[in-house]
Design brief:
The complex is a heterotrimer. Chain A is mainly alpha-helical. Chain A has ten helices and one strand. Chain B has a two-stranded antiparallel ribbon. The longest helix of chain B is centred in the C-terminal third of the chain and has 37 residues. Chain C has one domain: Rossmann fold (3-Layer(aba) Sandwich), CATH 3.40.50.12280. The two termini of chain C are about 20 Å apart. The model of chain C has no long low-confidence stretch (mean pLDDT about 90). Classes of the chains: A mainly alpha, B mainly alpha, C alpha/beta. Chains in contact: A-B, A-C, B-C. Strand 1 of chain A pairs parallel with strand 3 of chain B, so a sheet runs across the interface.
């Protein structure tokens, strides 16, 4: 029963929460840059506008691929909030992302293809950290489980056992949330060298689908961050929300203080951090427990 | 059953001789079809009889004096033939790798100690599974090959048409594979092992070009090196225990019997050469010069699985041993390195070859850990890999015949230009790495199992290897899907090739859906038999969630597709900073002239190319093997 | 129907300009003027843009480009010519390579004069364009409802 409520809440509230976070993100970023910034509800205005525009495509397959992308990413969130296997969630997340990659490449357009290649590279960069994080959840005592519904009932917060995994996950969150310095494939900022990268050829409505999917995904990712904190004590949920928001704020700070890097730096740095932080933590877990 | 087993082994050899004798193409093709069907039926009969018998392990043929003599003669014939070829092509030293083990085994047979009586044939879940893979995939590949080789010689007039020889080798190979998986006697296993090596060697050299000869001898020496290790292992075990039964070897090995440590290490080493693990991966890469059916049959679907099969057999004895650690490390290392190298390849067949090496690495690693869970994952990897790789190789061959290229970059928009072959390729590749499909589920299971076994190196290698695997497959799919204005290509794929491809595709999808059923009804009993206990790496509850996921993943694109099909949409040209010339193909360059737009994937040739990585990774793997083998053998002898 | 005026995304194209107006356009996004207050985003992508800002005169080379970019924008859309050159051709009007202002190539809705146009007037022009954008959007919805103009 509680999982049904969680699923419904996710389906209904996630886009609002995601959009709101996006709006706050733009507001905070503006303040960091000494501007007033757009209204907090701006992302919703944007999406409403995008849906009101004419339907345009470069290739007819785009719409269907984008819808599939959205459906799979939402489904991942549903599985997660239903308390299912976390490893399966992340495998499916990659499958969903593959549909975005297809939507980017199906147009045979130069900027979009360039963005697609970069997106693939980003996926390759963050995939090990994501998989290792799942393994970390599994290895953490007391019981070996990938099941989210059991992971939230541990006697202590898992972050105590998994600090390295936490670092690695937060690190790749910068890529997943498309924040500078790792926003190679497409960025929220205007005027970059690949225009809008992988989303260049998305017409207004497809771009709206993309934006909403990003909101769902953002909520899902922050929920994974919260999973590090949550334990069987109800108070821990408050702590989890605070930590998730802190991580989200950290990403904004990074976004506004770093210049973007080249692809090879992205790959090397991410893999090294993954190996050092998550790998060493995993070694310790395996040796001790 | 006592009739079907010898039939299954002998019949392909008889057909093989027939193939060599008949020089009329039409007659030979008809016989090839009929024999392929007969082989598939025979496998079906064997499986059915065995299943009706209750699916228990069946041991047959205790007294096989006649067969033993035949085998001795066959060994001598092979030795002479290989020695002749080595001298003909002036690769004298390779003949030593054939002469030494053959003489060693002959000595054992005639002058060695009295061996304990044993059952020469063993039919169990693993053997039947291998038989089905060999019979089904092998049969389909023969059906495909008849059409393919016709087209091949039509296009490649520079090569002598020796189809009779080609089909002789294919059938001989099938017979040897059946013999290999059904034998319980190590002496028989060794003979069939050598036959497969030599068939592969001859098939690679089929075109007789300099490159083909060079590569075929590389394949020969690497495989014969494994054969030598196998022979040494057998002789050591026979001298120590007066026994040549692989079942006893494993049973004794489980209790860390000092007399079994060395044979197991040597046989496992032999399996590494057969499965083209680093540092022996080069032979499989070189084998791609052969006509495509042989690549599909030998180098992806069946022959390389021989090494995996023997490792699965040995795996209970490898748990928590140095040998197991060695095998696990080499497998995991190969998985990662080969997938890195595949990123830098644009030749479709070479990508397939490297991905084969890579996936074999994962199976090897699963076997090396030696727990029921990991072998569960390994068995599923083997099943899915056999089907999807055979399908992809055949598809690549058919595409090459139609487009005259196998460069992935030239396959732009193939799904529109060659719809059937493009779609089959899509299914095959999606099956290789996308989420709810078999290969990925197996990989997932392997990951779980490696963590359960606290094997950190394997877990890390799988995590990083999955990322690189995803990269090279997705970018291939991108090329297939990318829209194009290039004209359609005439599909000259023959009927028989299409039949084989479609059956593969249907099997692939059916297996994805029937996955949980297969797990409980077949693979778990298999593990029970091998390990005495059984444990699926994925709990069955999860498997049913998985079915839901599979349905969603199949249904969502279909629904989305039909929902969006009729939405009126304004089609625009793609954005090229406003300089397209009317379509998405040409743009105006800075001098005002039209220029064709060409897009390509990323390949990182200077970072992860084969030239960059093959040598160092081979060296690392070789060093690890040498050191570990020295430790294992030294430790056992002390 | 929906209010679209809260989210005008602009696309900026520089024709044969002296770059004076372009600097001013970008200045609008700086903290001092902060056009994002009005939800204005300077996107680089015609597929997602609502308002096309043109600066500089149109010459033979960029004429096709401007046409194409305008074509690629989804309806409803608004064009704003910024600076004297874009309005009329300006001091370059008689030059051999200049065809004239932006309206020689695409239908211009709002003219923002000035050499260079000041950020205040640019923002003013965009705000006017936004009102027009809302009006066109309403018309667009009505047409879609009555089925007079099928999408596509």
């Amino acid at each position: 029963m509680s999982s049904v409520i969680a699923i419904v809440c996710f389906l209904v509230l996630a886009p609002f929460l995601g959009g709101l976070l996006d709006g706050l993100d733009r507001k905070i970023s503006a303040r960091m840059q000494g501007r007033i910034g757009p209204p907090v509800l701006q992302p919703f205005y944007d999406v409403r506008k995008l849906f009101n525009k004419q339907t345009i495509v470069v290739n007819k397959a785009q719409t269907f691929l984008m819808l599939t992308y959205m459906a799979v990413q939402i489904f991942v969130g549903v599985l997660f909030f239903a308390g299912s296997d976390i490893l399966m969630c992340f495998f499916l997340l990659s499958t969903g992302a593959t549909f975005l990659v297809f939507a980017g490449s199906v147009t045979h357009s130069p900027l979009s293809t360039l963005g697609t290649n970069r997106e693939l590279l980003q996926m390759m960069a963050y995939e090990p950290a994501v998989l290792l994080t799942c393994l970390g959840f599994y290895l953490a005592p007391p019981d070996h489980t990938f099941s989210v519904s059991e992971l939230i009932q541990t006697p202590v917060s898992l972050i105590l056992y998994l600090p390295g995994f936490f670092v690695a996950f937060v690190f790749i969150l910068t890529i997943k949330m498309r924040k500078s310095p790792f926003d190679l494939a497409t960025a929220h900022h205007a005027h970059q060298e690949v225009v809008k990268g992988i989303t260049t050829e998305l017409g207004a409505k497809n771009f709206a689908i993309y934006t909403i999917t990003e909101w769902y995904e953002k909520v899902f990712l922050l929920a994974v961050v919260a999973l590090f904190i949550v334990n069987d004590n109800p108070l821990s949920y408050i702590a989890a929300v605070i930590v998730a928001l802190a991580v989200w704020f950290l990403e904004i700070l990074i976004d506004n203080t770093c210049a973007r890097v080249k692809w090879d730096v992205l790959l090397k740095v991410t893999w090294v951090v993954t190996l050092l932080a998550a790998g060493v933590n995993m070694l310790i877990l395996m040796l001790v427990f | 059953m006592s009739f079907v087993v010898p039939f299954l082994i002998c019949f392909p050899f008889l057909v093989s001789i027939l193939m060599f004798c008949i020089r009329v193409n039409k007659v030979r093709n008809a016989i090839a079809y009929a024999s392929a069907v007969v082989i598939m039926v025979a496998v079906g009969v064997l499986a059915a009889l065995w299943g009706l018998d209750g699916g228990e392990t069946v041991l047959l043929y205790q007294n096989t004096e006649v067969a033993d003599h035949v085998i001795s003669v066959a060994e001598i014939v092979l030795m002479v033939a290989v020695t002749y070829l080595c001298f003909k092509y002036k690769r004298y030293w390779i003949s030593l790798l054939m002469i030494f083990p053959t003489l060693l085994l002959l000595w054992l047979e005639f002058f060695g100690p009295e061996l304990a009586p044993l059952n020469h044939v063993r039919i169990d879940h693993l053997a039947i599974l291998m038989c089905i893979i060999i019979g089904l995939i092998g049969g389909l590949i023969i059906v495909y090959a008849v059409g393919y080789m016709h087209g091949y010689h039509h296009h490649h007039l520079e090569f002598q048409d020796r189809r009779y020889y080609f089909f002789m080798l294919l059938f001989a190979f099938l017979g040897a594979m059946f013999g290999f998986v059904l034998s319980a006697s190590l002496l028989w296993i060794d003979l069939f092992w050598e036959i497969t090596s030599i068939c592969s060697f001859l098939l690679i050299g089929y075109t007789k070009t300099d490159e083909a000869v060079e590569n075929s001898f590389r394949a020969l020496w690497m495989n014969l090196l494994g054969g030598t290790a196998l022979a040494c292992g057998i002789v050591y075990f026979a001298l120590a225990q007066h026994d040549v039964s692989i079942i006893n070897l494993v049973e004794k090995g489980v209790f860390e019997n000092s007399a079994t440590v060395i044979p197991i290490a040597l046989i496992a080493f032999a399996a590494l050469t057969k499965s083209a693990q680093l540092p022996f991966s080069k032979w499989l890469m070189g084998a791609m010069v052969a006509p495509t059916p042989s690549s599909a049959l030998l180098h992806s679907a069946t022959m390389v699985k021989a090494g995996i099969y023997i490792l699965f057999r040995l795996s209970p004895a490898m748990a928590d041993t140095l040998t197991g650690s060695m095998i696990t490390f080499i497998g995991g290392f190969t998985f990662f390195m080969a997938s890195l190298m595949a990123m830098a390849q644009s030749d479709g067949k070479k990508v397939l070859a490297l991905s084969t090496v890579s996936n074999l690495g994962l199976m090897v690693a699963c076997a090396g850990v030696g727990q029921a869970e990991t072998v569960w994952a390994g068995v599923f990897l083997m099943i899915f890999h056999a089907i999807s790789k055979s399908m992809l190789f055949q598809d690549m061959g058919a595409i090459e015949n139609s487009t005259h290229t196998r460069d992935i970059e030239d396959l732009n928009g193939l799904i529109y230009r060659l719809p059937m072959l493009g779609r089959i390729m899509f299914i095959g590749i999606a099956g290789m790495y996308l989420a709810p499909f078999g290969m990925l589920v197996s990989k997932w299971a392997a990951l779980r199992a490696s963590v359960n076994e606290h094997n950190i190196i394997l877990a890390l290698l799988i995590c990083f290897g999955s990322a690189t695997t995803m990269f090279y497959w997705t970018k291939w799919l991108n090329r297939l899907l990318s829209s194009t204005t290039e004209p359609k290509i005439k599909d000259i794929t023959k009927k028989n090739e299409q039949i084989s491809l479609i059956i593969h595709a249907v099997l692939m999808i059916a297996l994805c859906v029937l996955f949980p059923v297969l797990s409980t009804t077949y693979v778990e009993p298999l593990l029970l038999e091998t390990f005495g206990y059984s444990s699926a790496a994925l709990p069955s509850k999860l498997l049913y969630v998985l079915i839901v996921v599979i349905v969603v993943i199949f249904a969502v694109p279909l629904i989305a597709h039909s929902a969006t099909k009729n939405i009126p949409a304004n089609q625009k040209i793609s954005y090229m900073s406003g300089v397209n010339r009317g379509d998405n193909r040409d743009f105006t360059d800075s001098l005002g002239d039209p220029k064709e737009l060409q897009l390509s994937n990323w390949y990182f040739k200077n970072y992860v190319g084969q030239r960059k990585l093959m040598e160092p990774s081979s060296l690392v793997a070789a060093a690890v093997i040498i050191v570990m083998l020295a430790m294992i053998i030294g430790g056992a002898l002390r | 129907m929906g209010k679209v005026k809260k989210s005008p995304w602009v696309l900026h194209y520089d024709g044969a300009s002296c770059n004076g107006c372009d600097i001013e356009v970008l200045a609008c996004l700086t903290p001092v003027y902060d056009a994002e207050r009005f939800g204005i985003v300077n996107t680089g992508d015609p597929m997602q843009a609502d308002i096309l800002l043109l600066t500089g005169g149109i010459n033979a080379q960029c004429q096709e480009v401007v046409k194409q970019i305008y074509e690629q924008m989804p309806r409803p859309k608004v064009v704003v010519a910024i600076g004297t050159c874009a309005c009329t051709g300006g001091v370059f009007k008689e030059a051999y390579n200049i065809l004239g202002g932006a309206d020689t190539t695409v239908p211009v809705d709002i003219y923002v004069p000035g050499c260079a146009a000041r950020p205040q007037s640019i923002i003013d022009g965009i705000v006017k364009a936004v009102a027009l954008f809302q009006q066109r959007s309403d018309e667009h919805d009505k047409e879609k409802k009555t089925g007079r103009r099928e999408e596509g």
